[in-house]
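Run log // design_07
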């Protein structure tokens, strides 16, 4: 039997079942943290792609491209979290993405501005870029949170997700604005 440390606690014996459980929990937590970091990277790279898509000069083509970027991002997150899913479950993700498009109405309006010669394409492109970045960020954060908590597409709750989405959409627009305002590296001479 192990000696007490004076405060009532006994050290865990190396090789014991408790030590093994502790090690397994530590490894699992490390894997979970690495997964969340990779998910964050996936989301942020897709935000940049979505923002670039906002610069497409053809009205409404940018909105179609945005939905495809988001579908791909959710697919990448599903693979990262090793979630098996059927076509029906994939439809859940598509329904959510398409269901938040009313929030994206600003993207559609900004996209239409691109049809105006000159300043319309600049104003429209900037508006769509920030909105597309915010939408993609929020969508990614919703699915990351759900999958990180052990959720699947089968138990995805649209109402809870929509509330969290609106919260993250504001953060996403801020993130997109920061990306736009970030100092650029000088071009090589």
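design_07 sequence
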């Amino acid at each position: 039997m192990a000696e007490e440390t004076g405060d009532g606690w006994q050290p865990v014996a190396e090789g014991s079942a408790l030590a093994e459980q502790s090690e397994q929990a530590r490894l699992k937590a490390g894997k979970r943290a690495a997964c969340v970091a990779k998910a964050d990277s996936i989301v942020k790279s897709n935000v940049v792609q979505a923002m670039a898509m906002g610069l497409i000069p053809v009205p409404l083509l940018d909105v179609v491209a945005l939905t495809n970027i988001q579908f791909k991002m959710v697919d990448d997150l599903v693979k990262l979290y090793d979630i098996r899913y059927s076509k029906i479950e994939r439809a859940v993700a598509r329904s959510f993405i398409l269901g938040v498009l009313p929030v994206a109405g600003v993207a559609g309006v900004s996209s239409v501005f691109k049809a105006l010669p000159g300043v319309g394409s600049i104003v429209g492109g900037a508006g769509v870029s920030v909105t597309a970045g915010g939408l993609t960020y929020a969508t990614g954060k919703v699915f990351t949170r759900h999958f990180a908590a052990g959720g699947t597409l089968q138990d995805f709750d649209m109402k809870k997700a929509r509330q969290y989405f609106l919260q993250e959409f504001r953060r996403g627009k801020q993130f997109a604005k920061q990306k736009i305002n970030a100092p650029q590296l000088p071009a090589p001479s």
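The helical segments are 17-53, 61-80, 87-99, 105-113, 119-148, 158-181.
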